[in-house]
Amino acid sequence: MSGTIALITRLADEPEAQYLAALRGAMPDETILPLREMSIAQRLDSTIAIVANPDPANLASLPRLTWVQSLWAGVEQLIACWPQDGPPIVRLVDPEMSRTMAEAVLAWTYYLQRDMPVYRAQQNNREWHQHTYRKPSNIEVGILGLGTLGAQASQRLLDAGFRVSGWSRTPKQVDGVTTYHGHEGLDDMLAAADIVVCLAPLTPETRALIDKTRIARMKAGCALINFARGPVVVEADLLDALGRGQISHAVLDVFDVEPLPTHSPLWLHPNVTVLPHISAPTDVHTAASVIAANITQFRNTGQVPESVNFARGY
Ligand code: NAP
């Protein structure tokens, strides 16, 4: 083993201290220090950094850096500020996060399938009106992104009896899931889905993916769940579609600007459910175990864990 592991974050003191304690607990034989506490000698010798929203300028003080472990699963912000010859970025792939996200997808799919927003609104008006029950087997959930999170969410939905389709960049075969890929595939999937769930990473290709043209191809009255990143959906086009009933309801956990500004029309929109980026938070302890396993593998073999493909953007 060699070299201090640098922790570089722009988190508030308390969450940073929690991550530090969990990481030290998971790797008792390693020395892990916030960058600001590292000596010059420790910086010159360090080969691994663990980061959350780091200031890229800080990374320049670690000349031997071989790879960087992100505390987040989504790394678009990191990629955007990464030097062209920067070290590989390993994103967080944590089974506990996949489980939590699959649970969130199922929970909010049920919320829409059981018409909860409609009944809540009726209650506000003391209105007694029974809507026709829709079975899961009559509802098609289309998942944008069949990666780590999308694949597990699909399985959870299938187990609950929903019809599931999924869209990815490369062709995929998943038991029980109708799969699509590429631009034409996307149009076909959108046309068939009753609920569209966005779980694709934000990349140059997926930015503004769900815009007015794509929304026009969706089934009239379908619902949208965005658990990926705000800019994948064009907010103004979504608002317009909600106003016309083309989209009946949107459950949004992610936004162009977070926290969602108080003046945003999304807050009080009757057909929008606003969540404060909570669909699958990083679990400090399981994340620390996953990261410890990555670092142990690197120490033992010299092999950097699977890293982000900069050209692809995820
Ligand atoms: P992942 O394993 O990298 O999977 C990404 C999936 O999206 C893959 O199936 C990929 O296709 C597909 N994809 C990417 N670009 C595409 C394109 N241009 N066209 C079609 N499909 C495309 O990522 P993940 O771990 O599932 O995470 C997905 C995203 O969830 C993260 O990037 C993050 O933004 C978000 N997230 C949100 C929260 C939250 O709390 N709201 C928590 C965690 C993560 P291929 O399979 O062909 O490569």
UniProtKB/TrEMBL annotation:
Q: Fetch the InterPro entries from UniProt.
A: D-isomer_DH_NAD-bd, NAD(P)-bd_dom_sf
Question: What are the residue boundaries of the D-isomer specific 2-hydroxyacid dehydrogenase NAD-binding domain, all occurrences included?
Answer: 112-279
Any idea which UniProt keywords this protein has? NAD, Oxidoreductase
Tagged with keyword Transferase = no
Q: Which Pfam families match?
A: 2-Hacid_dh_C (PF02826)
Source taxon at top rank? Bacteria
The family database entries (SUPFAM superfamilies) matched by this protein are listed as: NAD(P)-binding Rossmann-fold domains
Q: Which Gene3D superfamilies match?
A: NAD(P)-binding Rossmann-like Domain (3.40.50.720)
Q: Which PANTHER family match?
A: 2-HACID_DH_C DOMAIN-CONTAINING PROTEIN, D-ISOMER SPECIFIC 2-HYDROXYACID DEHYDROGENASE NAD-BINDING DOMAIN-CONTAINING PROTEIN
* Name of the protein this chain belongs to: 2-hydroxyacid dehydrogenase
Give the species this sequence originates from: Paraburkholderia phenoliruptrix
Q: Upper taxonomic classification of the species?
A: Bacteria, Pseudomonadati, Pseudomonadota, Betaproteobacteria, Burkholderiales
